Amino acid sequence: MLTMYSTSWCGYCHRLKSQLDREGIAYEVIDIERDPASADYVMSVNGGNQTVPTLRFDDGTALTNPSITQVKTHLASLGAA
């Protein structure tokens, strides 16, 4: 399952969620302001920054603030799309 690390106020997150919904791509949302461990993960893959949206894929790879095209391409490369 695709995991999106987000915040409630992030406009980029809301846009990507809408795009994922339109494409029928399943994902779980974790609010990094409510889950300190997820904030630590986001910082670990973003040079110490809490940059959202950060997506984590089943293989453990991550993309930060990706376009829907980048997400679909990455999922296809994993054989998940």
UniProtKB/TrEMBL annotation:
Gene3D superfamilies for this protein: Glutaredoxin (3.40.30.10)
Domain Glutaredoxin: 3-59
Biological process, per Gene Ontology: cell redox homeostasis
Pfam family, one: Glutaredoxin
GO MF terms held by the record: electron transfer activity
CDD domains, alphabetized: NrdH
InterPro entries (UniProt xref): GlrX_actino (IPR011915), Glutaredoxin (IPR002109), Grx-like_ET (IPR051548), Thioredoxin-like_sf (IPR036249), Thioredoxin_CS (IPR017937)
PROSITE patterns: GLUTAREDOXIN_2 (PS51354), THIOREDOXIN_1 (PS00194)
Protein name: Mycoredoxin
Biological source species: Asanoa ishikariensis
